[in-house]
Design brief:
Layout lengths: L1 H4 L8 H42 L3 H21 L9 E2 L34 E2 L21 H15 L8 H23 L6 H18 L17 H27 L5 H25 L6 H17 L12 H9 L1 H9 L2 H18 L10 H14 L7 H7 L12 H11 L2 H11 L9 H14 L3 E5 L5 H11 L3 E3 L13 H6 L2 E5 L10 H7 L3 E5 L5 H11 L11
Helix pairs in contact: 2-3, 2-9, 4-5, 5-6, 5-7, 7-8, 8-9, 8-10, 8-11, 12-13, 12-14, 14-15, 17-21
Length: about 575
Amino acid sequence: MSDLLIAESPLDSEALLDAYCDRIRKQLDTSVENRARFLESAHFKLTTLLNIARKAADGPLTEELTHLSAQAARELDALRGTNLADAAVALPAPLPTLDLSAVEKPVGNGTASVVHEQAQEYRVVTARPALPPRPAPPPVPSSPRRPLEEVYQDTDTLTEQAEQEGDVFSGTVGLIKLKALMCRQRALQAELAQRDIQHWPLRSLLNYLRRRIDDEHGPGHYLIPLRAELHPAEPWPWNRLADLYESLIEAYNALDWYDAEAAKLTQPERQELLESIASHQTRLWRHLQSWFPRQNDEHQIHFFRDLCGIAEEEDVYLYSLQERCPDDLLDERAEQLPVVLEHLQLDKKNRAKREAAVQQLRALVTNPDFGTRETDPKELAAAVAHCRKQGAPASSVALRALLTPWVALLEECKEKAVQEVAREIQKEADRLAKRAEADLAEPDQALSDDEQTELDEVRNLVRGKRCLFIGGICREESRQRLERELGLAELVWPSTNGTESVYKFEPDIEKSDITITMVRFMRTGWGQARELAVKHNKLFARLPAGYGLRQVVRQLHRQLPREEPATAAK
């Protein structure tokens, strides 16, 4: 009994208090760690069950699991980053003066008393680690200045798309379509804002889209395009966000197909398809983080959680969901989604033959020298015809993805099967031409020793000459850099839309010393450019891909003759 009376209290001395606090902190640290592990496990299990409930169309159970999963996620986020053992202990504020009238008189034998709420109790307060500073967003890529007529025409087209009737915008995919249209509206509005122009039909379109979302999908959806302060005069972030929303629609459709057909696929096939689907989600998330900080998208978040649930259920590791996955790999996997999906949809009996034929075609068009040789059109037509004989349809997504940049090389082929493919891929040419400028921009990096040597040799060949570029959209900064780095007297680069006759440029070819055509931008009829260059005794070269300094120097080094007078590069 006497031992209990003389037991030491943490309040007897500073040393006892420090020892007591250290012990309690260790206990709390262990408790936090155990709780975080439990919540992480619970979140994955609940997300898996939520995914199954959604497939079963069980509304009440889906709502209950959604609430529990979100609750676990919020508590887990609150615990992350907390380390009680390393946290600083904040001193409490001084106790206020106690009002003795608030202290109850002893009851019975006087063994207990209650203090009024004015008395502030001591407690341990953990200082959360400071969040790392948010990195500054990269500079916004510039967009080419377009004629006002084009902007107004795009506004009319966008309005027609938004006013479509029926179930075009129903369901989750329909809501994402409407958000993509809102982003297109903001991009057009930003183009006009750069010129201080207010176009009333365009401004009213945003309100119309918002009302349609409320009418068809209910209120309460957070819509990033409604934030007027975000990029008011910069079209690129909005156009890119619209592209990523449209890609997310493809991912949603692919995931629906996966849910229906997963049992028929092998584990490697499921892994490949899920990686391609996940890459669309991650690209959207990274774009929001870079260009729209502190903005969230409900569909991207739900899609991410669905993929995590599937990964847990399938026991697969999705690298495309990881932060360390490079952007180039994400872009590659995202672009391959239509090809992967089409490959899986083919019957297994003929899949191997068709895939072998497509691989032969891919090897041909990805050759660095492809597009510069005389025999390339015939070889390309033969490879396409072989793919058709193996059962590939004219509308094959795989063929379209490979052949869209090279449609001009198929113009001389009279074979019906090849022409059917050319007609199908021609439908995609305009869209790819608009995106090509952004996709093919080359970053400023120091040249390697070999590249510098090639540049010096090419500069000696072309210095002081007049050069003509045919194809693509002229970017003034690229034109000036090429003119300066190559030592050209003048680089003439008229902007084109791909529909002009090549004979329109014959006077420019005659006045120039070198004619260069951009094969990736060429359309039917531009194959005669080389003939005109030979006719006027001019040097000629082709750029199979890209118009950055590296690509231009590499192709000119390969194609231009080292000694004059040569009239054409074979």
